[in-house]
Specification:
Layout (H helix, E strand, L loop, with lengths): L2 H6 L1 H26 L8 H6 L2 H19 L4 E4 L3 E4 L4 E3 L7 H12 L5 H31 L10 H23 L16
Antiparallel strand pairs: 1-2, 2-3
Helix pairs in contact: 2-5, 4-6, 5-6, 6-7
Length: 196
């Protein structure tokens, strides 16, 4: 197989596009976090007006606050990083808790496919919503554990647990995506017309 055949291979093109999008998004998130945190190269305009990372974190804290309330744990958002129970204990959500890496993975997977933009937008938003909901559940469970003085970190790491659960759900979404979009079917190869 020569280089031209490799470049024409749809599997190779998909993997290359996936890696570029996934790694590019990861790099961009890290860069953005770096320039919106005071100290070093810092852009206050970005931090104050376009800080999508802070918006995602706040939305997860907001969702977790309401979810915790449904289970009888009244809480409030305390500053940009904390969800606190009205009884005192709380949860701190740092950058590594937001799930930007797994979000980048899903976006890279969907965007690397040859689909129209409406389908790409639908599937990307669906996966991001699933990740967001799982993260809200995680923060709510950690808050409940903190309030009840359980020690879940004695038995498991909540970051690893979140990643495992999120990737299981993404794997299910990938199966649905492949079946729904007909990507599991091999394209029909047309026989060349007979020469006359």
């Amino acid at each position: 197989m020569n280089l031209k055949e490799i470049k024409k291979n749809p599997g190779f093109r998909f993997i290359l596009k996936f890696l570029v999008i996934f790694l590019g998004l990861n790099f961009f998130h890290d860069l953005f976090i770096g320039v919106t945190a005071p100290g070093g190269l810092y852009f206050p305009f970005l931090e104050e007006n376009l800080n999508y990372v802070a918006w995602i974190r706040h939305s997860i804290l907001w969702g977790s606050m309401h979810l915790s309330g449904l289970f009888g744990y009244e809480s409030y958002i305390d500053g940009p990083f904390h969800l606190r129970s009205v009884t005192g204990p709380g949860v701190q959500m740092v950058y590594s808790c937001i799930g930007l890496g797994i979000m980048s993975f899903w976006a890279g997977f969907v965007l690397a496919h040859e689909l129209n933009w409406k389908k790409k937008l639908f599937w990307t938003m669906l996966g991001l919503a699933v990740i967001w909901i799982i993260n809200c559940f995680r923060v709510s469970v950690i808050l409940a554990a903190t309030v009840n003085r359980w020690n879940p970190s004695k038995y498991l790491d909540h970051h690893d647990t979140f990643n495992i659960v999120a990737y299981i759900f993404l794997f299910i979404l990938i199966l649905l995506f492949v079946r729904k979009e007909g990507l599991h079917k091999t394209p029909e190869i047309k026989e060349p017309a007979p020469e006359v």
